[in-house]
Every structure is written in structure tokens, then in C-alpha cells.
Amino acid sequence: MSRREDRHHHLLGHQGRPVCEQDLDARLTSLLDAKMHGIAFSAYTEGQTPGDRLSRDQIERRMAIIAPHFKWIRAFSVTEGNELIPLVAKEMGLNTLVGAWLGTDSAKNREEIDTLVALAHEGVVDVAAVGNEVLYRDELSEDELLDYMADARARLPASVPMGYVDAYYEFEDRPRVTDACDVILSNCYPFWEGCAHPYAILYMQDMYRRLQKVARGKRIIITETGWPSAGGHFYGAESSPQGAYLYFLKAMEWAAEENIEMFYFSSFDEPWKVAGDAGEGDVGAYWGLWDKSERFKYAPIP
Question: What are the strands, taking DSSP E only, across the chain?
Fold first, then answer.
């Protein structure tokens, strides 16, 4: 065993849980008991990929696991069974940030937006997201995205705020998109910018401050932030169980202390991302607080 492996083993202790700070479990229990703001809902179980139809049973099972610990749920799509997510969430007393997943298929985009609008009129959408990182992925032009956003805004209930989800710097670089949003919905990932773990929370806080400068007083929601528990590294950012645990604790404590709306990414590990089109490699499968078998990774939950 190398020095690095020995130190890693010492820090993790029993079942891979960190033991380097005595109060970690107490801090975690406090967060879970108080209910944190929100979490991104990953519904696909092992063997499933986007495009497979989700069943109500699997959504209800997974939602019941996380509902006691969060106030909001985020859904990424409203087709292929995903439209059931906000319905189940409301039945379990959760608020909802619901997205229309946009891409290069205009017919699919229309179906997503039409369904999002319909769900909003049913009263199961608290915040509507029109698109997720389509500018980052270069799947739509800015003008095309703005057309979809304008169409959705015109048809959504006036009481439902609408925004677009992307990396924080897109809102700096694209003022027309920022202006079109009722609410700024931003993904903030120090890991994907190669930030070493000791500086990750400070880096994420700086991302938020940069958003404040361009939001001009608009509501800001951090729609995704997280740290992977396995799968390798991205430049100076290394995945690890203890790194993921500590990032989760510190990010959610900061959000609670500063009254910041934050959705942690993600609820469950997603094995499909390793072989899928997500482009994240092995690390993509290990962002969940719960593993692929729906077991909480960092401490026992009664």
C-alpha cells in the first residue's frame, strides 16, 4: 500500500466514511433533520438510460427515500415518464423545479414545452426551466433558445417564474438570455473547472457572486452543484468519498446560513452515464448522495 493509499484508507474508516473530523455525522444529521432546500432527482435505475420510460412505481420509491430530507425536487424533463415526477413530488409535499429538456430535435422540443406548460396549469410546477445547458452543448443557437423561452413564458401561468439553466458564465456572456429569465438558474461546478478540493467551496461562492453582478436583483437559484465520490479526476479536481462528503456538507451549510436556494446534484448514482452520451466518463456515474442500489453513502439514515 502506497503512502497515498494508506492516508486515504485512514481518512475513510469503516465502510468508506470519513473520520477525519469528529463532528461530521452530527453536522450531517442536523442538515438532514432540518430539511435542505433541494436536490436533483435521478430516476434511472441500473440498466436504464434516457429514452427508457420511467414507471410511477420507481419514481414513488425513490421519491419516498429523499422526501424526508429536502423541500424541493428538480426534474430535468417532462416526457417518457418524467412528467410523473412533479405529480408524485406534489403528492409527497415537495416543491418543484421542472424542466423542459431541449436539444436538436424541434418536434421533441415542442413536446417538452407543451407538456411543461400543461403541468404548470395543473399546479405542479413551482419554477419552470426551459432548457438545460443547450448553449454549453451548442445544440441550439441563442436566438433559437430565446424563441423557445418567449413561447413558454407567454403560455405559462403568470405566477410561475421561468428561467433557463446553464453554467454561471453563460449569464455573464449572454445578456439577452439573462434578461429573458424571470429567475436565474445556474449550474456551479468547481470540479468541472479542475478546482482542487480545498478551494472548491470558495470557488463556488465566487461563481454565485459573479451571478449576482449580472442578475440585477433577480432571484438566483443554484440548480446544480456537487462533487463525485469516485471515477477519477479532472485536472486538479479529484473524486473521492471523503471529498464528496465534505463538499456536500459545506455547500449545504453555506446555502442554509446565507439563505441561498441550492439544488444538490444528485440524489442517486447514475450508471448509464459511463457508457452514455453524457460525455462525463467514469466520474459521471458517482455524483449521487445515494448509490445505485439506493443506499445512502455517508451515514446511516433510519
Answer: 36-40, 70-75, 95-100, 127-132, 162-167, 183-187, 219-225, 233-234, 237-238, 261-264
**Omega before residue 293 within 30° of 0, cis:** no
> pLDDT tens, 224-241?
999 999 999 999 999 999
Q: Is residue 204 within 8 Å of 272, Cβ to Cβ?
A: no
Average pLDDT over all residues of the chain: 92
Q: For the beta carbon of residue 4, count every other beta carbon within 10 angstroms.
A: 8
Q: What is the residue type of 128?
A: A
72 forms beta bridges with 38, 95
Q: For residue 262, is it within any domain?
A: yes
Cell numbers for 230: 469516485
DSSP codes, 77-144? -SSTTTTHHHHHHHHTT-EEEEEE---S-HHHHHHHHHHHHHHHHTT--SEEEEEESTTTTTSS-HHH
**Domain, as residue range, for 181:** 22-285
Residues in CB range of 114: below 8 A, 6 or more apart: none
Dist CA 165 CA 222 (whole Å): 9
- On the question of pLDDT at 19 being above 50, the answer is no
Give the C-alpha separation, 242 to 246, whole Å: 6
Residue 299 in domain: no
Cell of 294: 439506493
CATH of the domain at 207: 3.20.20.80
Task: Assign 271 to helix, strand or coil.
Answer: coil
Looking at the domain assignment, is residue 6 inside a domain?
Answer: no
Predicted TM-score of the model (pTM): 0.92
